[in-house]
Specification:
Structural class: mainly alpha
Oligomer: single chain
Largest sheet: 2 strands, parallel
Number of strands: 2
Strand order of the largest sheet: 1-2
Length: 91
């Protein structure tokens, strides 16, 4: 997404620094859940980014995320609510 362009990377880091996005720390418990989900959805395949978003959504009680993955709509939270990918709705 950043095209390996230093200016684009710096712009992105400044945007993050200005709280354009909130970074969520992954603790040991969350990492175990990420491993479980990656194993459960290995036929999809669920990668680290997908699993991290699902875990963060649960922890933060979110039902909307941004992902460039077109198949993200198959994932849901522990309460069985689908996680909406708002990025793809813009297309």
């Amino acid at each position: 997404m950043l095209d390996f362009d230093v200016r684009a990377q710096l712009d992105f880091l400044r945007w993050v620094s200005a709280r354009g996005v909130i970074l969520h720390e992954i603790d040991e418990e969350a990492l175990e859940r990420i491993i479980e989900l990656t194993s459960k959805y290995q036929d999809r395949p669920m990668d680290l980014a997908d699993a991290s978003l699902v875990v963060a959504a649960k922890q933060l009680k979110l039902h909307e995320v941004i992902s460039v993955d077109r198949d993200f709509d198959i994932y849901h939270t522990a309460d069985r609510k689908h996680i909406k990918n708002v990025y793809l709705e813009r297309e």
